[in-house]
Design a protein that fits this description.
Layout (H helix, E strand, L loop, with lengths): L1 E6 L3 H10 L6 E7 L3 H11 L7 H8 L3 E4 L6 H10 L3 E4 L7 H14 L3 E3 L7 H8 L7 E9 L11 H12 L1 H15 L4 E8 L2 E8 L2 E8 L6 E8 L2 E6 L4 E3 L8 H29 L6 H14 L7 H22 L27 E4 L4 H8 L4 E5 L9 E6 L16 E4 L8 H22 L3 E5 L14 E2 L14 H19 L3 E7 L1 E3 L11 E5 L2 E5 L8 E3 H13 L7 E4 L7 H10 L5 E5 L1 H18 L9 H5 L3 E2 L2 H23 L1
Parallel strand pairs: 1-2, 1-3, 3-4, 4-5, 6-9, 13-14, 13-16, 14-15, 16-17, 17-19, 18-26, 19-24, 20-23, 22-25
Antiparallel strand pairs: 6-10, 7-8, 8-9, 10-11, 11-12, 21-22
């Protein structure tokens, strides 16, 4: 029985834990440590193991045989070294190390300790990758290997997040296409691999590698579409492509020089793609595995640790990949530091009846200042300190930054000296547990920090979804419409936002904190127009599924105008309304929204489906999936969530008008100066 511990309890650690249940090697999880208390405790409950406050306590008290290091990359080295020194075998998520020096130190320590080290190169155990290598001999002498990875990051538009964060996302996805390419070149040539050419910027990396007579071409992009992860091996007698997204291999093992081959090869490959994709999707659904190769790699590592065999990922491979990774990362980071034109200056708030100076020196603290809306709020203010989980973004509008996870608490120093706090941080996905931590608990912790720092004004960014569902189709809802008595059936997001508002109103008053609540509708970036989730979804290509019919109402707001309104509220706190449902009065129906989309260059096609039909279909599908997994479905009021609402927009119109006037006045002032 292998005693297993986890350092890091995030998303990837959860996949590792699921993989353990599918191994033939018997194991028991004996402990977990994560610097985020809530995440650590949730993982411990799921794994039925103790949670430890430090790595040292975990290793001393749990005495694991194997440690999974699932921390952010910058913490991999320290965690892996501590585990090796404690006598454990170590499985490190990708990247194995950030520098060759760190990689060599860990491998030398593992050799001295007589322990194995493995890295999270699970695609090397993907069945499709194995089939590609097995059929490589059919292609004749190898000529080139192409590794292509196109990724679509979740969250704000790439253009909004700045070069440093773009580069960080690119670096995060780089290891997978790099180690698969290196592995194939190693197997084909067995010799050294040299980096012959590199072109890098924060969103794209192109490189050429040379291994003897074989050329390796690496392409990693955040901008390229469609999303893809492929490895193509080309030889003197044909080419084969391993598609990691679908876990399939396609290609015809012939030179393609004869006339009939030129005609039939595309047909053969099309048939392969169709049939093998269908089988792959079925296998993925049945296995519930979102990371092909992970179970196989972890299983091989566990068996080697039991039998005294070799690690399934060799030391030579790890050193070679780390060396190339280090050099490529340096190129990307250098590109991210190149000077770029600054964004237009932010917009300061104004008093009703008079314009504030363009440069308002009063400090505003903005939580979630790296998010889609939070970053826009920071741009709309003059003197901003941002609070967020990650490292400081390269945003010239931020005059300070505090790295903190609000769900774990917040130091009063983070908000000290602020005239007002704008709370824009909240969970936008995940289940009830995530919303409890990152919306509800985070708000309570922020209020406590504000009270301790004697900051007494809060602008809370909430959501229109907190208003109870309409009782009749003709009901017009306004700022006085109450929240629902039972919010949980309306889904995790609405539930979290409802409790957030309730806690903020109750506890802020008890702590002497005045509060203003802004409830935006669906936020739109008209430079990258998409359908709001309450209105529809893209199906395929230009075709979209629309909920309801064009004449139904919709509540949307441009993200920049929303941010300016929130900034106005922060600057004019005393005269701002206590609650405002913020939406664009000029876009009242879905037809109006579609007209604006098309005016912005959107060329999609809509298929409208009645909301009642969608609600019934979703409830049926959820029930079938839950019952198939042996559990009763969580109640979800789909009809209440999707049904259209009509709003009184008078308060929103006045606030947007004031914010627009502020923006115009500041622009005129700056142009005059």
């Amino acid at each position: 029985m292998r005693r297993v511990a986890f350092i890091g309890a995030g998303h990837m650690a959860g996949h590792h834990l699921s993989a353990l249940a599918r191994l033939t090697t018997k194991s028991v999880v004996v402990g977990v440590h994560d610097r985020m208390t809530a995440r650590r405790d949730e993982f411990a409950a799921r794994a039925a193991c103790p949670a430890f406050p430090s790595v040292e306590a975990l290793l001393d008290d749990a005495r694991p045989d194997i440690v999974h290091v699932c921390t952010p990359p910058g913490a991999h080295f320290d965690a892996a070294r501590a585990a090796l020194e404690a006598g454990a075998h170590v499985y490190v998520e990708k990247p194995f190390a950030l520098t060759v020096g760190d990689a060599r130190t860990l491998l030398d320590l593992a050799r001295v300790q007589g322990r194995l080290v493995c890295a999270g190169h699970q695609l090397l155990r993907d069945r499709a990758f194995g089939r590609l290598l097995a059929r490589a001999v059919e292609l004749g002498s190898p000529v080139q290997v192409d590794s292509h990875f196109a990724f679509c990051p979740a969250g704000p538009s790439l253009q909004r997040i700045g070069a440093t964060r773009q580069a960080r996302l690119l670096i995060d996805i780089l290891p997978h296409p790099l180690y698969t390419l290196v592995s194939v070149l190693e197997r084909l040539t067995g010799g050294e691999i040299d980096l012959a050419w590199v072109h890098a910027d924060p969103m794209d990396l192109q490189a050429v590698l040379r291994a003897g007579d074989v050329t390796g071409r690496l392409s990693v992009s955040l901008r390229a579409r469609p999303v893809a992860s492929t490895l193509t091996l080309t030889g003197t007698r044909g080419a084969l492509t391993c598609d990691f997204v679908r876990s399939i291999v396609v290609g015809a093992e012939n030179s393609g020089t004869e006339a009939i081959e030129k005609v039939l090869n595309p047909m053969v490959e099309g048939a392969q793609l169709l049939s093998r994709t269908a089988v792959s999707v079925a296998n993925r659904v049945c296995s519930s595995g979102s990371y092909p190769g992970l179970v196989q790699l972890v299983g091989a590592f566990y068996r080697a640790s039991e039998t005294g065999g070799l690690s399934p990922v060799s030391s030579a491979h790890l050193l070679r990949v780390t060396g190339l990774f280090e050099e490529l990362v340096a190129r990307v980071e250098t590109a991210a530091r190149r000077p770029r034109s600054a964004r237009p200056p932010g917009v300061a708030g104004v008093e009703i009846g008079g314009v504030r100076p363009a440069e308002d020196t009063r400090l505003v603290v903005v939580t979630g200042a790296r998010g889609f809306l939070g970053a826009e709020i920071a741009r709309a203010l003059s003197h901003v300190r941002g609070v967020g989980r990650g490292d400081p973004p390269d945003d010239p509008h931020l005059h300070g930054w505090v790295t903190a996870d609000l769900s774990d608490g917040l130091s009063p120093d983070a908000v000290a000296g602020a005239d007002v706090v704008v709370h824009a941080a909240a969970e936008t996905s995940g289940g009830y547990g995530e919303h409890q931590r990152n919306t509800i608990d985070a708000t309570r912790n922020l209020l406590q920090a504000m009270h301790a720092a004697r900051v007494h004004r809060l602008v809370l960014v909430s959501s229109l979804s907190v208003i109870r569902p309409p009782r009749a189709v003709w009901e017009c809802q306004d700022e006085a419409t109450p929240r629902p008595r039972q919010a949980r059936p309306l889904g995790p997001y609405t539930w979290g936002k409802c409790l957030q508002e309730e806690i903020a109103e109750r506890e802020a008053a008890a702590l002497g904190i005045a509060i203003r609540i802004v409830r935006p509708g669906a936020l739109m970036d008209w430079s990258e127009p998409t359908l709001p989730g309450v209105m529809g979804r893209r199906l395929f290509g230009r075709w979209h599924l629309g909920f309801g019919r064009p004449s139904l109402p919709i509540a949307v707001c441009d993200v920049a105008r929303c941010a300016e309104a929130i900034a106005w509220c922060a600057a004019n706190f005393e005269t701002a309304p206590r609650v405002v449902n913020l939406l664009d009065p000029a876009i009242a129906t879905r037809r109006d929204f579609m007209a604006r989309l098309r005016a912005e260059g959107w060329s999609g096609r809509m298929v409208w489906v009645p909301i009642s039909v969608l609600a019934l279909g979703l409830k049926t599908a959820r029930a079938a999936i839950s019952l198939g997994h042996g559990r009763w479905p969580e109640p979800l009021a789909v009809w209440s969530i999707l049904r259209p609402r009509r709003y009184d927009t008078r308060i929103a119109a006045r606030m947007l008008e004031a914010a627009d006037a502020s923006a115009r006045s500041v622009r005129v002032t700056r142009l005059a100066s």
